[in-house]
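Intended use. Records such as the Leucine-rich repeat receptor-like protein kinase entry shown here are meant for training and evaluating sequence-to-structure methods. They are not intended to support clinical decisions.
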Amino acid sequence: MYIIFKSGNHRTLMGIWGQRKTFLFIFFYILFVPCQLEACHLVDKIALLEFKQKITFDPSKLFQTWTSTTDCCKSWEGIACDSFGRVVNVSRPGLSSGDDFIIDTSVSGTLSPSLSKLSFLELLDLSNLKDLTGSIPPEYGKLSRLSYLFLDTNKLTGSIPVTFKYLYQLKKLYLSDNTLSGAIPSNIFDGFLSLSELGLSGNQISGPIPSSIGNLLSLTKLDMSHNKFSKSIPESIGKLKNLEYIDLSENQFSGKIPNSIGNLSKLVLMYVNQNQLKGNIPSSISGLSSLIFCRLSENKLSGSIPPSIGNLPKIQRLIFENNKLSGKLPATLGHLATLTDMFFSNNLFTGKIPSTFGNLQSLQTLDLSRNKLSGEIPHQLVKLVRLQTLDLSFNPLGLSRIPNWFQKLKVFRLILAKTGIRGQLPSWLASSSCSTLDLSSNGLTGKLPKWIENMTSLSFLNLSNNAFHSSIPDEFRNLSLLMDLDLHSNKFSGNLRAIFSKNFQDPLGRYNSINLAYNMFKGPLDENSGNEPVMASIVSLSLSHNPLTGHIPISLGNLTSLQEIKLAETGLSGGIPKELGNAKELKTILLSNNDLEGAIPEEVLNLKELEEFDVSENRLSGRIPPHKANIPKSAFLGNHGLCGAPLPPCKHS
């Protein structure tokens, strides 16, 4: 093919030239046209550049490659296009990872409505940018091809746009961890027929869940936790037959748990804790044949646990604590062969612990504390070979003594506070593997035995509110993993050297807390008490109501983690050391009812974290230093030499 010119002599020459031009045209067309098809569509490019203009701070340069002189399909990070140059993916999350890197950054700015012009967009991920503010543009409802929308973990405000009801293709929607408010539009769920995951947690969304949520037949994951949702959980929730995960915790839901919940046979995890739910646990719970984790705690649920609960074939954790559940524990609970954790504390359960609990071969935690259970503890519990934590505290069990068969249990945490135990500590404890032992508020008597040194796994020991007497044996020093010690309200006597200089296994075994109040320990406190290595990490030290006498050791100021020190009514004399002001974390200082004298050090009264301070009933004098902490007048009374706010002003000499 060539062009024929009619001008005589030039015909042959121009024919040849035309042939060459045509060849060049075809060559360049073949060479460049495919590239033009893959190039970023101008409308999309302009829309993305307009979005970038709304970004005010980009320290990690997430959007650096987005420039007007480059091809957005080829050169822009986070952009993917289809074969026609239309943008289908915009992915610029603030938290991402690869084989050998992790990016965790923040971006400031607002969401531009211009992204609504990306008419072929299927994925929009601007999650975890932390500082995106403002509202979600309602124009985003025009993105009719959008399948994945991730705007979570920002600072977005306003309500969920009503226009989202037009996002018919949406499969995953995450708006979690923002500051969104208002109610969910009542008809927003009408078009979400393909939605499989919905995340709205960590906002301030209020009002009810629309009953139209029952239209989300493809939904597998629903997270609405940490909001302000109220009213009843809709009965239509039972239509979500594909649901595997539901978290409605930490809201203000009231009313009953809907009976329809039993239709969710694929449900694996159900959290509705920390609401205001009332009424019974529905017997339809037995229909949750896939359920593994169930948390109904911190509500106002009442009535008995339905016997049908014994029909949950896969259940591992039942957390029903802090409700008003009552009646006897159903024996059918013993059928739950897969159960690993039972948390039923702080309810109103009565009667005996069912002997069928001995069949719970997988059980690791049994917490029945703070109920009204009575009668003997069934010896069948000895079969619980995997049991690690047993807490029966604050039940009127009337034990009189710890059953001998307990020594066959290999528990790490044994908590039997206020269960009626009397007499001396059983010697079999010497060979136990307990790391936590709480026998407080019982009628235990006698001496602290020397064999306690064999309880080398102990990290927490609470023997408070008993009738122990005697001094602390030197063997106590060998509790090298002990970090929390509570012996308050006994009749212990002698000095504190074995406690303050015990061994430790760095980094374990340093004290976190010591409470020895209301005993008969004698001092004086060793001047180097605050320099002992085992005391270096202590947070709380309570020695009140002991006849210690002597001075406050200056070295206590070296306890840089100390948050509270209680030395009330201990017969201490001398001054308040200004060095105590070096313990910068101190929130509580109680030094009342002693013989302390001199001035109150400015360094102590002006500790930045100070919340509670009491030096009443001493012999302190001088002007109370100016201070920012809100300390009542009563905290300074009984010191006739003190003056200045909040006491009457000082008299000028």
